[in-house]
Design goal:
By secondary structure, the protein is an all-alpha fold. The protein contains three helices and no strands. The radius of gyration is 18 Å and the shape is elongated. This is RNase H type-1 domain-containing protein.
């Protein structure tokens, strides 16, 4: 999200102009590459397809 804002996202102007509220961006690590989650994703996908 920060990269998108820094890269010139449409939201950058809105964020810079916002004086009404405080905006906090929080990075949440995705599950990609985390042990067990890849296997769980495969199992879920297989179940949906069957």
């Amino acid at each position: 999200m920060i990269r998108k804002v820094e890269a010139g996202s449409v939201h950058r102007q809105w964020i810079q102009a916002s004086t009404i509220c405080r905006i906090t961006l929080i990075f949440v690590l995705g599950h990609m590459g985390v042990d067990g989650n890849e296997r769980t994703d495969r199992m879920a996908s297989e179940r949906i397809q069957n």
